[in-house]
Amino acid sequence: MLFFYCMENHKKYRAIAIDGVSSSGKSTMAKRLAKTLGYTYIDTGAMYRAVTWFFLEKHVNIEDEQEVSVTLDKINISFRLIEGKNVCFINGQNAEPFIRSMEVSNFVSQVAAISSVRKKMVFLQQEIGKTTHVVMDGRDIGTVVFPDADVKIFVNSPARLRAERRWLEMKETNPDITVDEIENNLNMRDYIDSTREDSPLKQAEDALLIDNTLLNVEEQYKAALDYIHQKL
Prior knowledge:
The protein is α/β, with parallel strands linked by helices. The chain has ten helices and eight strands.
């Protein structure tokens, strides 16, 4: 059984939904917004990555619905606040050192497209939103997880630019990685995310579009925070 453990319990809660394409900087922005607002930040991408990593470790055939379902029942996903950061754990193990690899990146969109996986993750995310104010980023937060979110933002920019930015982040820990490899991965993930049948990636009609092609991290954050202040 999967679960989420949260220390806070608020009767009244708010949700800020931040969606967007892969590696668009939405997680960096969401973390900072949550800290500024005093909300709980939830990285839904980490949840899907944790499931993907577990499936890879257990050599799960993702085309076998029964095998996927049985394996999901063996997974516990939780978040713990460590040094001011929400850290994803799977079956009691810190998953962060494993879930950001290119191997996981190459398979996470396929795993996230599986309906049984999405249903469990969406349920968990909605349960989290019942217990605390949240800033949550992902692909379907404003359209499926929290369609009535207080604030919705969608982040976008060209794949090549996102790949170049991502390469700068990865080059020290993965010196062999190339911009072309990252761009191909991003294009593949964006295509799968936007064309899947179950809760595809798309901008909610009432979401603010932030195209960060010409924006730096600070400008993107300020644009989002100003909009949140307007809405709330």
